Amino acid sequence: MSSCKHSILVLLSDRKNMLRCQHCHLTIKADELGAGYCPECYEVTGNKQFDFEEVTAEDTGLSRYRCEDCGLIVKSG
């Protein structure tokens, strides 16, 4: 068991407006895509891949938080 008291929690955003690269499976927000091609594929292979699929988020009614000290994900709802 961790001795962390989880005193510094950061609210994690929901997964709306997310895209997944069909080649390397990188998941990224659509507004962070910039030039329209996958930055991971371009960095690794030099190829500009434009094939993405939308990631659908299920509505669980839970909020998720991450502890800044130890990285634990806490669900609340």
* Secondary-structure class: mainly beta
Structure summary, number of beta strands: 6
Q: What does the average pLDDT come to?
A: 86
The largest β sheet comes out as: 3 strands, antiparallel
Enumerate the strands of the largest sheet in spatial order, edge to edge or round the barrel. Answer: 1-5-6
Describe this entry's structure for a reader.
The protein has 77 residues and is mainly beta. Helix content is 9%, strand content 31%. It has one helix at 39-45; strands at 9-12, 18-21, 27-29, 52-55, 63-67, 73-76. A 3-stranded antiparallel beta sheet has the order 1-5-6, with no helix packed on it. The chain starts with 8 loop residues before the first strand and ends with a strand. The mean pLDDT is 86.
Question: Can you summarize this structure?
Answer:
With 77 residues, this protein is mostly beta strands.
